[in-house]
Amino acid sequence: MELASFVGRALFVSVFLLSAWQEFNGFGDDGGRAAKSLRPKFNAFVSHVATHTGQQLPPVDMKILVAAAIALKGIGGLLFVFGSSLGAYLLLLHQAVATPILYDFYNYDVDKKEFSQLFSKFTQSLALLGALLFFIGMKNSRRHGRQLRKKAPKAKAN
To answer: For 133, phi and psi rounded to 5 degrees?
Structure first.
């Protein structure tokens, strides 16, 4: 069962590790292709937040944002493979921040092709987020169950 769990985690995290590796290889001096494609989506997200909340987000260098994404996916992925809750939390943080920015279906009309493509990717990303929450919940419930069993007093036979 442990082998199946390890293989499952390795397959799950391959999405994050391969993405981090690809972004790392293309990073360059300016953050690479990832930073260039992220800039318009991030600007649209900032505009959307400002319109709906009245709050301005501080300016962010795309190179730093991409580097942070690479670090979260890379470190989080490696830790997650070995069953670390910290790795799951790092990947969860990445998904929670990146999903609404990258898959901005809310900026398109329902009739547009982009809406369906982005909405599909958004829901897939939510599924990954759900799987991470499930992993964290299972980790915590197993830990809690072990603690309860250890604390239970043993009945003495008379």
So the answer is: -65, -40
- Where would I find the beta strands (DSSP E) of 16-134? none
- Mean of pLDDT over the chain: 90
- In this prediction, residues 14-43 reach a mean pLDDT of 93
Could you give the CA distance from residue 105 to residue 112 in angstroms, rounded to a whole number?
10
CA–CA dist 51, 55 (Å, integer):
8
Tokens 């260098």 sit at which residue? 61
Return d(Cα 68, Cα 61) in angstroms, integer. Answer: 11
* DSSP H or E stretch at residue 82: none
| Confidence band of 125 (pLDDT split at 50, 70, 90) | very high
Q: Is the whole-model pTM more than 0.85?
A: no
DSSP run (H or E) holding 103: none
Give the type of residue at 132: L
| Segments of 68-125 assigned E as strands | none
Using DSSP, state whether 30 is helix, strand or coil. Answer: coil
pLDDT at 80 over 90: yes
N- to C-terminal Cα distance for the chain?
39
Please classify residue 101 by burial: count the beta carbons closer than 10 Å to its beta carbon, then call 0-12 exposed, 13-18 middle and 19+ buried.
Answer: middle
Sign of the dihedral through C-alpha 22, 27, 32, 38: positive
